[in-house]
Amino acid sequence: MAKEPCDLLVRSAAELLTMDAGPAAGPLRGEALREPGMLADGAIAVTGGRIAAVGRTADLRDRFAPREEIDATGRVVMPGFVDPHTHLVFGRTREDEFEMRCLGMSYEEIAAAGGGIRASARRFRALSRDAILSQARALRASALRHGSTTVEVKSGYGLSTESEVLSLEIAREIDADGDVVPTFLGAHEVPDEWRHDRAGYVRLVIDEMLPRVAARGLARFCDVFCEAHVFTPDETRAISLAAKRLGLGVKLHADELAGTGGAELAVELGAVSADHLMAVSDAGIAALAGSETVAVLLPGTSFFLGMKRFAPARRMIEAGVAVALATDCNPGSSYTESPQQVATLACVGLGLRPVEALAAFTRNAACAVGLGHDRGRLAPGYRADLVVLDVPNHRHVAYHHGVNHASCVVRNGGTVRGPDLPDRRACG
Ligand code: NIG
Ligand code: FE
Q1: HEC profile for the chain?
Q2: Is the pLDDT of residue 348 over 60?
Q3: What domains can be seen in the chain, in order of their start residue?
Q4: Ligand 1: does its nearest atom lie under 6 Å from the Cβ of 97?
């Protein structure tokens, strides 16, 4: 019988993580998170940017005549990472504050002294569009080289109508082919010129920024930094309900530093995700477990802020919460775009198994940006986003840390790096 043509065959993977086991739809919860689907000597056929078939190499070689092949012998193949929480449009970095923190000042002390997000906003507004665009583009490219085929990107360093819109325009500009999920985060902080009138800034977000962003279709989600000294639960509710009325989905920075009932509020609002959750309460965990809201954990932030406390991930998983991971890539509290590094921190800090970390960063992360039907799994019909990692088995992704294992990244069926795979197998 004649073989079917296909664009690409990725073959001979030592381990192919499908993330397609368990329930047909939605995220993996509880014990299912540790059995996301794994094939030895696995292969994937790709056509028209979509996955045509997943199976054993011998079977797919019998069935397909590929135009291009990637030999993944001795390596791991998995869905591209989905990074469901980043702030990667910021313009300027804040290494000065990093040094202050190294010397003992806390993140909150720096913010109270006018640093932090407000310092970023001052710098952002002083930069040209081109300067911000090249910063964001370079960071997006680096994230892709580390295997993140989809990234959620928040605004939130402009904090004026004009600069928040600019931020989302830049997020759109760095989107190659639907790989950037834009989120409006005008309520990231109260900027300098509104410190005397918080209510006025909340009104500006609701009455001016949100309608403008929604009218131009610049964002898919609206996020609010719901935290003591930032936005209260009532302010968060008002902003989120306004966003919903305009057709945006809701995300929340919830219970990051102090517990304010952010997780419960996220569930009440039907948020697609509640993020951070280092200080989540038992009631918050119970509310999340009984909902579709995904808990996005950001251990890079706990680590980078030198906190003793990480989110109670094991309790959440045991309770049945859908747990995802993200880098939180931003210039203040987590300056890394590497999902692999964050997977290490998830294992060491949150107590996830290596395989749980990878499932949380793919299938569950896709659900956290409303793309669980299209990304985060290697299954027929899903978008052909995948990464070939130069490691002998999946545990090495988190275990051998601080280096980039991605040797080939396929996004929407197109190879963006490789297929010349460097040979580092001697390390394994
Ligand atoms: O997710 N929590 C709010 N925003 C960021 C920090 C932003 C910054 O410090 O620039 C975060 O941790
Ligand atoms: Fe964040």
Answers
A1: CCCEEEEEEEEEEEEEECCCCCCCCCCCCHHHHHCCCEEEEEEEEEECCEEEEEEEHHHHHHHEEEEEEEECECCEEEECEEECCCCCCCCCCCHHHHHHHHCCCCHHHHHHCCCCHHHHHHHHHHCCHHHHHHHHHHHHHHHHHCCEEEEEEECCCCCCHHHHHHHHHHHHHCCCCCCEEEEEEEECCCCHHHCCCHHHHHHHHHHHHHHHHHHCCCCCEEEEEECCCCECHHHHHHHHHHHHHCCCEEEEEECCCCCCCHHHHHHHCCCCEEEECCCCCHHHHHHHHCCCCEEEECHHHHHHCCCCCCCCHHHHHHHCCCEEECCCCECCCECCCCHHHHHHHHHHHHCCCHHHHHHHCCHHHHHCCCCCCCCCCCCCCCECCEEEECCCCCHHHHHCCCCCCEEEEEECCEEEECCCCCCCHHHC
A2: yes
A3: 4-79+377-427 (2.30.40.10), 82-367 (3.20.20.140)
A4: no
